[in-house]
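in:
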């Protein structure tokens, strides 16, 4: 997982700090998420299935029953 030996990373205190800062930077970059835009029109859109047909409350109940049966 680490591209170099861990003994090499932690030989120098400064190198270890730079390495840890890089890990934190990557984690922040991944978890940051995209910027919010002013367009919120899709928030109320109806859910659809794979075929594009709208999901009905009956479909939701069937799905919930199948999940509870597992």
């Amino acid at each position: 997982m680490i591209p170099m030996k861990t003994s090499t990373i932690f030989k120098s205190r400064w190198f270890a700090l730079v390495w840890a800062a890089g890990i934190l930077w990557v984690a922040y970059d991944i978890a940051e998420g995209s910027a919010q835009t002013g367009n919120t029109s899709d928030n109320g859109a109806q859910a659809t299935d794979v075929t594009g047909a709208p999901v009905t409350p009956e479909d939701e109940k069937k799905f919930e029953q199948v999940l509870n049966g597992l």
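note: The two ends are 35 Å apart (CA to CA).
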